[in-house]
Design goal:
- The structure holds two protein chains of two kinds.
- By secondary structure, chain A is mainly alpha-helical.
- Chain A has one domain.
- In chain A, helix 1 packs antiparallel against helix 2.
- Chain B is mostly helical.
- Classes of the chains: A mainly alpha, B mainly alpha.
- At the A-B interface, helix 1, helix 2 and helix 3 of A face helix 1, helix 2 and helix 3 of B.
- Chain B: InterPro entries: PhaG_MnhG_YufB.
- Chain B: This is Na+/H+ antiporter subunit G.
- Chain B: GO terms for molecular function: sodium:proton antiporter activity.
- Chain B: Keywords: Membrane, Transmembrane, Transmembrane helix.
- Chain B: Pfam families: PhaG_MnhG_YufB.
Chain lengths: 95, 116
């Protein structure tokens, strides 16, 4: 049975808040990472968390155009990771 | 009845996504070197994001936005391990040595040449 007083929108907003807390935990590795690749990995995971937060807000607030922003953000996040990985290597061969 | 099943499916998927993202955050903060961090980040972050996006797709129902969510799920599922692979390969090509269990460089730097 569905418990009374709890709606699906509230569950999505609560999950988005917890994902924000988990994304803030990633800032420790992005600041304190000893190498460039550690920082890059932390920023990449943080970007994936941002995409999930945008999708949860799109379902929680009932505004589906947030998903367009999330799609473009995921694409730019992947492009950022591959580009910085290429630029840190001498001859640029990472894939 | 079908609304109840949909509600609990959404709750289970969101909680599982939160759990795997929490595992990813703990792994990225706690594990010793870049290769282990890339492993845990790609593995559990793909699963966490995938389950949370599946919950969003179930909640939206049959409309245009669900197609965007499934496309986003597919895209994250493909590109996240690719980005982790590129990061780990660039770490390998810039000369970062993986931490092995038999000799840590902080404790006994004299034996580093013998065991490697």
């Amino acid at each position: 049975m569905i418990p009374a007083g709890i709606s699906i929108e509230e569950i999505f907003l609560l999950a988005a808040a917890l994902f924000v807390v988990l994304a803030i935990m990633m800032f420790y590795r992005a600041v304190a990472g000893p190498t460039t690749q550690d920082r890059l990995l932390a920023v990449n995971v943080l970007g994936t968390n941002t995409v999930v937060i945008l999708a949860l807000l799109a379902a929680g607030l009932g505004e589906p155009w947030f998903l367009d922003v999330a799609l473009i953000y995921a694409l730019l996040n992947f492009l950022m990771a591959v580009a910085i990985s290429k630029f840190t290597v001498e001859r640029g061969g990472v894939l | 009845m079908i609304e109840s099943i949909r509600f609990w499916a959404i709750v289970v998927l969101v909680v599982a996504g939160l759990f795997f993202t929490f595992v990813s955050a703990v792994g990225v903060i706690r594990l010793p070197d870049i290769y282990a961090r890339a492993h845990t980040a790609s593995q559990t972050d793909t699963l966490g994001a995938g389950l949370a996006l599946a919950a969003v797709a179930i909640a939206l129902g049959w409309q245009h936005a669900t197609v965007y969510t499934v496309l986003l799920l597919f895209f994250v599922f493909i590109t996240n391990p690719t980005a982790a692979h590129a990061i780990a390969r660039s770490a390998a090509e810039t000369g970062i040595e993986p931490v092995t269990g038999d000799s840590s460089p902080e404790e006994d730097p004299d034996e580093e040449g013998e065991t490697s």
